[in-house]
What does this fold into?
Amino acid sequence: MKIAIDGPAGAGKSTLARQIAEKLGILYIDTGAMYRALTWKALASNINLRDKATLYELAVATEISLVYEDGQLRVYCDRQDVTETIRTPEVSRWVPVVAVDEGVRKVMVEKQREIARKTSVVMDGRDIGLCVLPDADFKFYLTADLEERARRRAKEMVKKGYKVNFEEIKAEIWERDKLDSEREIGPLKVLPDSIVIDTSYLTAEEVVDKVLSLITEENDAVPVP
Ligand code: CDP
It folds into this structure.
């Protein structure tokens, strides 16, 4: 079973993906965390984020792993736990600049395909249905109003102890969505076979129920030989 979940920032992809993985007993891969980990390392190494050759070298040389510990997904970059540090506003701001790079995308997509070759998986990101799992059994495109997405992101940040400026958060995700949608390689977009779900007025639980019923309906519809 391969399930792709794409969509803009704050649409609820990771909440959905985590729960679907748990309910179906399959692996969840947060591809955004991989781009974030590389961006964190690039910032920590003080390299020029627009220098293609250096970025590519960095992507090839960096070991990123997603590991489950006590039921929690943790992100390691060269064996250092970066689960929390990759969610800082600074990393969020720079990640689309790193993610636009052709070499970086090549390395990441290859790593992600490699994982999916071996196991059933639900992946969330921007180019999953388009590039990573073009033959996915299900492609979901989650979206929500910008205001609502910014509200959710602000709530998350407050919970983590950040002082937030709502207008700034709104501007940051608007800018990130624009860069992610307008890039040439692996852009965020609705595909002809995407199932689009607007989560603006749905609770996380309602989204999970909706997606699970779509998956089971479809699987039940397959005639048993
Ligand atoms: O959780 P949030 O929606 O803020 O974003 P994320 O899934 O952590 O992804 C962070 C950034 O990584 C995105 O804005 C993209 O720039 C990049 N990304 C990507 O280019 N391709 C993916 N498959 C996943 C993330």
Q: What stands out?
A: Residues 9-10, 14, 31-32, 35-36, 95-96, 99, 125-128, 176, 180 surround cytidine-5'-diphosphate (CB under 6 Å). The chain is about 50% helix and 15% strand. The chain has a mean pLDDT of 95. The chain has one domain: 2-202.
